[in-house]
Design goal:
Layout (H helix, E strand, L loop, with lengths): L5 E6 L2 H13 L5 E5 L5 E3 L2 E3 L1 H10 L17 H8 L10 H15 L4 H12 L4 E4 L6 E6 L2 E4 H7 L6 E7 L8 H8 L3 E6 L4 H9 L4 H7 L4 E4 L2 E2 L2 E2 L4 H7 L6 H7 L6 E5 L6 H6 L3 E5 L6 H13 L2
Parallel strand pairs: 1-2, 1-9, 2-5, 9-10, 10-13, 13-14
Antiparallel strand pairs: 3-4, 6-7, 6-8, 11-12
The chain binds ligand FO1.
Ligand FO1 binds next to α2 and α6.
Length: 313
Amino acid sequence: MNSAGKVVALCGGVGGAKLAWGLAQILPPEQLTVIVNSGDDFEHLGLHISPDLDTVMYTLAGLANRELGWGLAGETWHCMAALQQLGGETWFRLGDRDLATHVYRSQALQRGDTLTAVTRHLSRSLGVQHTVLPMCNEPLRTLVDTDAGTLAFQDYFVGRQCQPAVRAVRFAGAAEATLPAEVDAALTDPAVTHVIICPSNPLLSIAPILAVPGLREQLQALRDKMVVASPLVGGQAIKGPTAKMMQELAMPADSASIADFYREFLGTLVIDECDAGEADKLRAGGINVQVCKTLMKTDEDKIALAQQLLNAT
Ligand code: FO1
């Protein structure tokens, strides 16, 4: 049953997109806005790539490549094969159909459209009915300081497969970024009953969203409505480098660290049943904790977690 009002979800790529899909199965389009990390965006092969926005849009449209976790289902790779033959750059793979998204976005940005406007157009064209918004229109880029030097996000994530040890994560351009009017409107709508932080990597996917000036203050004002889904299950991330990075940054990979990371606006923390043993200690520290199955293997799991989060406050 859906007794929620308007819901805003903050998310990164794969894991976050799965939950966004679950929420979209419960909530009608006018009740769900998904604010997506654009710190992973970069210029590649002369094109503007927005990996997390595309993952969320493709997932909500039912077009996502479930095996890869990114890109389109049923993709072909003729362009990459031809590019390889020419000696071009193929370390970051763009599928033939996916390329159309990047070409369209790049041209629209070049003629002066905002990332928000292009995302709206792409969403509609792909058949996405819920609202998908980038966290900002300006270039805010995630940089990873590692023991192998400072790396642009995709150089670290795809190029180096997250192997170098992380020393710090920074967000170039954050000071110049501004909250898009659509993001501001979504978060200040009095009908908002839930703001959900998806189980995305806090350091790489949610921190860039929080780096947009003004956003933290808005979330603080919404504390009672804030529900954080922990990305950890038994001290491990389901996919990606969350646990490894937390350890490298001297943060124990546990629920307490997740609670601490979001402490300034944490309303309710939802942790996996595997980590139920941590709940009492968190509650003793004054944290509102709920325990449920957070693993999303099937579509039913995604909908069930979405419902649990909507019931959490
Ligand atoms: N991830 C990879 O591991 N290898 C790739 O070649 C790759 C290409 C790619 C192309 C388009 C896109 O939207 C995403 C792509 N990703 C790829 C995923 C992406 O690097 C990351 O998953 C996100 O940036 C982190 O959320």
